[in-house]
Amino acid sequence: MEAKLIKTEEDYAQALDRLEVIFDAKIGSKEGD
Question: Which domain of life is it from (predicted)?
Fold first, then answer.
């Protein structure tokens, strides 16, 4: 995983989208880990 700073509204929106995928992942799945 590569961490990057949130500098723009677009970066912020992308981070929120990614978090939604992670939080909704099934336990034990690749995304859930």
Answer: Bacteria
Report the candidate in 24, 18, 26 with the shortest Cα–Cα distance to residue 1: 18
1-33 residues labelled b (16+ CB within 10 A) or e (exposed): eeeeeeeeeeeeeeeeeeeeeeeeeeeeeeeee
pLDDT at 15 over 90: yes
pTM, rounded to two decimals: 0.64
* Angle at alpha carbon of residue 16, lines to 25 and 13, rounded to 5°: 145
Contact predicate 31/25, CB 8 Å: yes
